[in-house]
Design a protein that fits this description.
The chain is an alpha/beta fold. The chain has a single domain, classed as Rossmann fold (3-Layer(aba) Sandwich), CATH 3.40.50.300. The protein is 38% helix and 13% strand. It has a four-stranded parallel beta sheet, sandwiched between helices. The longest helix is centred in the first third of the chain and has 13 residues. The radius of gyration is 16 Å and the shape is globular. It starts with 8 loop residues before the first helix and ends in a 23-residue tail after the last helix. InterPro entries: GTP-bd, GTP-bd_ribosome_bgen, P-loop_NTPase. This is 50S ribosomal subunit maturation GTPase RbgA. Pfam families: MMR_HSR1 (PF01926). It comes from Streptococcus mitis.
Length: 165
């Protein structure tokens, strides 16, 4: 009798790519839907990230209940995960995310500065389930359209490298 393949190949590929590329980034940005932050996480990817610094972004916060979003932020912060709530379609997102990244990496930046190394660029990996808003966030941070955005899952297939303007 043949073995049933229950783990789709694209998930295995994504897991492998995350593992391979972790060494190239300073921290990981986990993007979830603010309306259902636990259900819109992929625990497998979060586990792979391990001890790498994490920035959890509750995206689409404008569509979520503000009181619940505040509670979720407090919950994740109590777990030691820096969290912010945004709407990645808004221009202010760039400053909010950039400031949060600098805060998250402040110790590393200070250590490098003491060694005479100036960190000009922080590198992050943005991970999340389909339709969490990863491409929209990338476009916003890059200041131009670098990723195709669509109202259905799977429009962007694969990894992309981009630079924040």
């Amino acid at each position: 009798m043949a073995t049933i393949q229950w783990f789709p190949g694209h998930m295995s590929k994504a897991r492998r790519q995350v593992q391979e590329n972790l060494k190239f980034v300073d921290f990981v940005t986990i993007l979830v839907d603010a309306r259902l932050p636990l259900s819109s996480q992929n625990p497998m990817l979060t586990k792979i990230v391990g001890d790498k610094p994490k920035l959890l972004i509750l995206n689409k916060a404008d569509l979520a209940d503000p009181a619940m979003t505040k509670e979720w932020r407090q919950y994740f912060e109590s777990q030691g995960i820096q969290t912010l709530a945004i709407n990645s379609k808004e221009q202010v997102t760039v400053k909010v995310v950039t400031d949060a990244a600098k805060k998250l990496m402040a110790d590393k930046i200070a250590r490098q500065r003491e060694r005479g190394i100036k960190i000009e660029t922080l590198r992050t990996m943005i991970i999340g389930i389909p339709n969490a808003g990863k491409s929209t966030l990338m476009n916003r941070l890059a200041g131009k359209k670098i990723a195709v955005v669509g109202n259905k899952p799977g429009v962007t297939k694969g990894q992309q490298w981009a630079q924040n303007q």
